[in-house]
Predict the structure.
Amino acid sequence: MIPLSNYLIVAAGLFSIGLYAVLARKNAIMILMGIELMLNAVNINLVAFWRYLTPENVSGQVFAAMVFVVAAAEVAVGIALIMTVYRRRDTVSADEINLMKW
Amino acid sequence: MVDYLAILPEIALLVLAAILLLVDIRLKEEGKDTLNWIALFGLVITFVLTILLAQPGEEEVIWGGMLRHDWMAFVFRLVFIAGAAFTVVFSRGWEAIGDRGEFYGLLVLSTLGMTLMGAAGDLVMLLLAIETASIPLYIMAGFSTKDGKSAEAGFKYLLFGAMTSAVMMYGFSLLFGFGGTTDIYALADAIAAGNVPTLPLMTSIILVLVGFGFKISMFPFHFWSPDVYEGAPTPVTGFLSTASKAAGFAVLVRVMLVAFPSVTVEWQTLLAILSAITMTVGNLVALRQTNIKRMLAYSSIGHAGYILMGVAAASSLGVISVVYYIAAYLLTNLAAFGFVAIYYKQTGSDEIEDYAGFSRRSPGLAFAMLFTFLSLGGIPPLGGFFGKLLVFSAAIQADMVWLAVVGVLNAVIALYYYLTVIKFVYLRRQEGDEVPFPVAKSQSLAIIICVLGVTFLGVIMAPMFELAQKVASSFF
């Protein structure tokens, strides 16, 4: 059987790629996709831990299902907000959305 | 059998949100300001019902540990509902939000999320509660779609919030792996039984702290708050800086004290250092702000630093000080953003310079403003002073004298920029400052309640202190 650690390594790698996308990308849509990758890493972690550690207890699966719900809601609101900004400014680049600065 | 009285506030808030959305459909364009009254009365009724019927009893656990019905949950519920009610008052007549049913619906749903945050006893519930509170706030911050700054504020808030909450969820998933349970109260034993080494445990605590730190705008996750506070409609800013921040602290206190007793010393040190940096950064940068909303944003970062001192103390007095500070801070900051909202509606300006001559236009409002800013600065005998006194003594009691010294120095810096605003209000003059300044009755009443509340917290400490003691007794 595949050891638990393999799943965790995949999840950690996915999480890092997502975090890199969020920090390095300028396009708001790409940032949202990076966040999705991070959330998928969370789900891999949760399901792997559930299967290997507490298969008799459903709480890990429920947790993963809730993360899906949250991810969907966040993207729906995120796209809507990006749309309002795009309509006003004709850009979705996080660099150019800078009316307010320190 | 679920004790329905225990979740009465949540039920009432949900019903109120549904009523607001349904009534909104039926109302004609000119009658839309009825929504404001419905929201306000609904929240006031919920507040009263909570005090009368939803006080914590013998049974603390609801829904198999999903929620806790203790004094912590009770006090913070009152804080959130009060914050929402004041926000409704100051939203009255505000362009593009004051007559929108969705806005009030979102506000009430966000409050519902916060009440659940204060009560959550399980990581799954905590995650859902945090998102229920946050997602409506993203929309509310970007609600004035015609105002470019507001849209930008919502956009930045969402991107920052979604990222930090993803990091926090990753931390949750690791904690679930270490403990094999999602119950916060069972997690401590499970971690102790599993002999989890300190390093991985601290790593996941730091990941979780990213999400909590975002909510309370703790350094280094405070970058969003000046931009979002400046861009969001002012009533929303008031809500963000008080209720949303208080919700973050409720979660922080509960999770840290309950789930991680095995590494208390480590997270205490971490939070103490972050607290010192947070308040110093907030107060120093606030010094050079010219926009009052931005200044109050940095000042609220500073206040987050003070409150963190109480959390870092990890003692009974620490929890008491956190609760007391938050109660005083809620009333003062809501009033402060109330002035900014009222002033902006009349003059269309948020610049501190434009407050010149305000005391001649409205002596009463200017006097209330003086009171509020002195309380924010921590001048006795106002509520803000006792809040500071308690957090400093909690830090000293926990052998962190250096932190208390940093706190006192910061309080002096903070007083300078609060008094700068007062200087413009009272000493400077500008053209046209004889024109009287009209204020809606409901809004002046709200300001009076805030000012009286702050004075009450400063002069008569005992009732609030006893309530805070009850909160602390559910942890120690």
Observations:
- The radius of gyration of chain A is 17 Å.
- Chain A touches chain B through 46 residues (CB under 8 Å).
- Residues 50 and 58 of chain A are 8 Å apart (CA to CA).
